[in-house]
Amino acid sequence: MRKTIFVDVASIHNKCKGLSYTNKIVLVGIFSGLAAVFQSAGALFPGVGYIISPLATAPIIFCSIFSARLGFLSYVLTILILLFSHPSELIIFPFTTGLLGLAIGVGFLICGTYLTLNIMGCSALSLGILTVLYGLKFPLLGPLASTTPKLSMVVGIVIFSALYSWIWILAGKIMLKRMIRIIG
């Protein structure tokens, strides 16, 4: 069962290699637009939008599975879209949801096990959150965490990142199975 999902990822990746340059750019545009809309949902629809906002990770995962280069291009394009549409979301996406999507998508391509994939996703998300919280001194977690480093908070962020990354890996696995059925 564990090997099947990585075979599915390789199958999707190989099918994407056969696409024309134009088709690849269109896919990047569509997925970047979706990621920007999902990320902006928190600002557009307070309350319900915060439930939709984490879905910005999924389009970046898919683009990264098509190819690491397309994933990075989608990540950058989403940042540019957010720059012009909702700059308030600009500090959150590049360091959290977008970075996690990029790490998990590329991880599906290069990692051999779910453990290494989770370590890659957890590391990216933890570093992103810690950079925003302690490097940029932006209160990303609101009143829950101060911008002065505390070991207990760092450990909590790493544990949260590991669990959140694992949830996205499982969600990615389910989405990949459905995508394989669609692509055929």
Short description:
This protein is an all-alpha fold. The chain is built from 8 helices and no strands.
Biggest β-sheet strands, sense, barrel: none
Along the chain, the helix and strand elements come as HHHHHHHH
Poorly predicted regions are none
In total, the number of strands is 0
CATH topology: Arp2/3 complex 21 kDa subunit ARPC3
Task: Using the CA coordinates, give the radius of gyration.
Answer: 16 Å
Structural class: mainly alpha
What helical percentage do the residues reach? over 70%
The CATH class? Mainly Alpha
- Strand content is under 5%
Counted by DSSP, the helix tally is 8
How far do the termini sit from each other? 19 Å
Keywords: Membrane, Transmembrane, Transmembrane helix
Transmembrane segments: 25-48, 60-84, 90-110, 117-136, 151-171
